[in-house]
Design brief:
16 strands, Alpha-Beta Plaits, 354 residues, four-stranded antiparallel β-sheet, Multidrug efflux transporter AcrB TolC docking domain, DN and DC subdomains, 3 domains, 11 helices, single chain, alpha+beta
């Protein structure tokens, strides 16, 4: 067998040379078009469904939320395994599909099942939602946002988190290939209503009245249209509160002697939400953004686009705020591996030539 191959190669040198060049060119073309990642994606197509059930114990979450979702997904086209996790106030259900199943087709199947099972779930829970498509090695970068040295008194952690949530996160999500951006740390801004029990008792009102008023204090509604002289004019009820003063003027109860306002019964102020974690950079409190990619996205190209967006945003950051980019960068591992391979190929080629 080998004698025939050698004999054929010696008698057809020109053909062998051209075939070798063609194979080398095709291999180089394919190599430069391959997606680069730390590890191949070894996960079967999986759709994750998340459901918040505030106030429920794990047993109630399992019986009232997780079990109906599992029953709905079981038997669906292409589903090979269902895994779930129930914790206090939270349910996670993983639906794994056959390897040949397209992930977008799988999400469509799960979406249809969610519509049919929604009537069986408790009304007080948050509607189930599908988690974004992500890779097993999806975290491509950790980006820090911190206050510059010596300017800690000029910028609060609440302002830092607000900037991360409403500007930086949205800009990063607009980059093709980014699956999700998770802000960690800082102080989440919220309007807080601190009820005064003495005032509540003197006006003979309950805490439910305060909750109902605060819930409906910032709503915008439609009033239909007004038709006049061949034209239609939309009627809008503008009740969106934009500051503390407007919230304090929300009416809790109408009385003949005058309306009872929210500000008469409680102190309304802006404060941080309850924190479930923290983040730091160089030993200082900061906000860290975890950036995850979609399956199939080229890590090196995506990282380059993210860094270009960071450079663009750096020039527009408020005074006293800066990015910290030295946390984690998955592309570093890939670049080092590629450099090692190129060095090995170079050394091997030199040894063959010598």
């Amino acid at each position: 067998m080998f004698d025939r191959i050698i004999h054929f190669s010696l008698n057809n040198r020109l053909l062998v040379v051209f075939a070798s060049i063609a194979l080398a060119l095709a291999g180089g073309y394919t190599a430069f078009r391959l997606n680069l990642d730390v590890f191949p994606d070894l996960n079967a197509p999986t759709v994750t469904v998340l459901t918040e059930a505030h106030g429920m114990a794990p047993e109630e979450v399992e019986a009232l939320v997780t079990l109906p979702l599992e029953s709905a997904f079981n038997g669906s086209t292409g589903v090979r395994r269902i895994r779930s996790f129930s914790s206090p106030g939270f349910s996670v259900v993983h639906a794994e599909f056959d390897w040949s199943m397209n992930i977008f087709h799988a999400r469509q199947i799960v979406s249809e099942k969610l519509q049919s099972v929604s009537a069986l779930l408790p009304k007080e829970i948050t509607p189930p939602m599908m988690a974004p498509i992500s890779s097993i090695m999806g975290e491509v970068m950790l980006l820090g946002l911190q206050v510059e040295q010596g300017k800690e008194n000029n910028v609060s952690m609440m302002e830092l988190r607000t900037l991360a949530d409403w500007e930086i996160r949205r800009r990063l999500l607009s980059i093709p290939g980014v699956a999700q951006v998770y802000p960690i740390g800082g102080e989440v801004k919220e309007y807080q209503v601190h009820v005064l029990p003495d005032r509540l008792q003197s006006f003979e009102l309950s805490l439910e009245d305060i909750v109902s008023c605060a819930t409906e204090a910032s709503l915008t509604s439609s009033g239909g249209v007004l038709r006049s002289k061949g034209k239609e004019y939309p009627i809008r009820g503008l009740g969106q509160a934009t500051d503390i003063e407007q919230l304090e003027k929300a009416v809790v109860q109408h009385r003949p002697e005058g309306s009872v306002l929210l500000g008469d019964l409680a102190n309304v102020e802006i404060g941080p939400a309850v924190s479930f974690g923290t983040a730091s950079a160089d030993g200082k409190p900061s906000v860290v953004l975890s950036i995850t990619k979609q399956p199939g996205a080229n890590t090196l190209k995506l990282t380059k686009k993210i860094e270009e967006a960071i450079e663009e945003m750096s020039s527009r950051l408020p005074p006293g705020i800066e990015f910290q980019k030295e946390f984690f960068r998955q592309a570093d591992f890939i670049e080092v591996a590629l450099e090692n391979i190129l060095h090995a190929l170079r050394d091997g080629a030199l040894l063959v030539l010598v």
